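User: I'm writing a tutorial on reading structure tokens. Could you give me a worked example: one chain, its sequence, then its tokens, then a sentence or two explaining what the tokens reveal?
Assistant: Sure. Here is the example chain.
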Amino acid sequence: MDPHSLLAFTLVAAIAIASPGPATLMAINNSLAHGQRSAIWSSLGNGSGLFCLSAAAMLGLGALLASSEMLFNAVKIIGAGYLFYLGARQLLKKSSAQVDTTQASASKPTPLKLYQSAFLTAVTNPKATMFFTALFPQFIDQGAALLPQFLTLTGIFVALSLGSLSLYAALAARAKGVLTRPESSRWVNRVVGTTFIGFGAAILAMRRQTS
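And here are its predicted structure tokens:
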């Protein structure tokens, strides 16, 4: 691929990834609640989800989603519903002052559960699918082999996403001492829960792109 096209794609992808979304919030929340290492699994889940969405866009499924109002609305409702569930669970979560150490360790999610939660959040986000569908064709050389270009562009995007989520998780871990204090943890739960619900509402408000 043309180095200039790769650089342009990297810049566009970096700008898009820098904007916080559900994956960022999940990485921060997992880092605060279960330690920085737990965010690794949710970041990997998100990266896997992004890879699947990219593959779907390349196979034309993204265009199908954009052209079918019923399919688009179904994915939109599923994605928003899951974010509403995450938000409600966070709002109803007891603060650290109300949970003893034994209960906290017993309720700690497994790496697989963290991975699955982030993966599901990624693949049910129609905004991400629309992004890949609209962005990738701008940087694809129709005269060259498709698979190497797909792997290169997707690899760049996923690597940038993993780097961004790791950075947010590290920053959250540094602030953990302050944010997990009894007087702060309740407000953190409320902010995180409300933000998840806000992301869900934003997905519901999305309109299908028509040409």
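What the tokens reveal: The chain is about 80% helix and 0% strand. Residues 87 and 193 are 4 Å apart (CA to CA).
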